[in-house]
Amino acid sequence: MTTLSPPRRENRLWLVVRDWRGLASAGYLAVLVALALLAPVVTAHEPNAQNFDAILAPAGTPGYLLGSDDLGRDVLSRLIHGAQASLLASFLAVGVALLIGIPLGLAAGYLGGIVDSAVMRVVDTLLSFPAIILAIAITAALQPSLVNSMISVGIVFAPSVARLMRAQVLAVKEETYVEAARSFGSRGRHLVLRHLVPNSIQPVLVQSSLLLAHALIAEASLSFLGLGVQPPDPSWGSMLARAYTFLYQAPLQMLVPGIAIAATALAFNVLGDVAQQALDPRRNR
Fold first, then answer.
1. Which regions of the chain are under pLDDT 70?
2. Helix, coil or strand: residue 234
3. Is residue 51 within 8 Å of residue 111, measured between CB atoms?
4. H or E stretch including 68?
């Protein structure tokens, strides 16, 4: 007589890798990060090196694969070096959002009462402002720079993280195993760290991958307006701002960083979508 054994649960990382979309997105991001880290080695020119004999050189010019800008700087070198600032800005903004939003959402969901009401009123107030306008206002108050602009973007993203974390905590703390833990004397920090946080954090982590795409676009927007990376340092947003003036003379200068921003944001979004499917227990057999 044969007995049926319970199905073996697949490793969830394998579920992400098995999906060709997740594999392609992860591969693209890995290559991009590697290029950004090795930028001084893989680029033929310094990002700020000027050559007035090659101003607005077209793509394919010897020594300038993607052409040069209005100051004779290599577009490809600035694109690769600019990836450092753009990726760093994205991770910094999302890190600030998680650092602020997770504790606030956890406190609101776990403590409830007046703490929940106070936190959620602050969250609702921040969410009532248009995100980019609020980010511009905070950046202007802190003084324009890459770090300050990303701190402002993180502050803007924090309310959505707090709301998601609060909703998850409210659902998890009513589960039977949490009630059983309470009956065995689990209280305070032990209950929060042992049961609430591990079982509430997964949707927040998936949301953070989606926020990376929004942070990348926010950095490009703020740098385009002159509130992010300051000249002459490169970033994809500052390259767009510089190339906009010469759109008709050298359209490729604006097209290249635009494609880089779109492709990277798409990779973050796809990776978040695949991770959400992998972490969803209803989709796992």
1. 1-18, 188, 278-285
2. coil
3. no
4. none
pLDDT at residue number 259: 92
Tell me how far apart the alpha carbons of residues 153 and 155 are, in angstroms, rounded to a whole number.
5
CA 143 from chain centre, in angstroms, equals 22
Closest listed residue to residue 245, CA positions, set 237, 254, 236: 254
- Residue 94's pLDDT is 94
DSSP 14-65: HHHHHSHHHHHHHHHHHHHHHHHHTHHHH-SS-TT---TTSTTPPTTBTTBT
Q: Is residue 54 part of a domain?
A: no
What is the pLDDT, as a whole number, of residue 1? Answer: 39
The count of domains in the chain is 1
Q: How many CB atoms lie within 10 A of CB 128?
A: 9
| The residue to which tokens 């999302």 are assigned | 94
Structure tokens that stand for 56 in this block: 């607005």
Tokens of 242: 């510089």
How distant, in Å, are the alpha carbons of 38, 39, 192, 236, 253 from that of 43? Answer: 8, 6, 48, 16, 17
Residue 264 counted as domain residue: yes
Residue-wise pLDDT for 202-224, tens only, equals 888 888 888 999 999 988 888 88
Q: Flag whether 109 is in a domain.
A: yes
Q: For position 91, which CATH number holds?
A: 1.10.3720.10
Indicate the helix (H) or strand (E) that contains 199. Answer: helix 197-224
Domain assignment of residue 220, given as a range: 32-46+59-279
| Tokens read off for 74 | 């290599």
- Tell me, what's the pLDDT at 104? 92
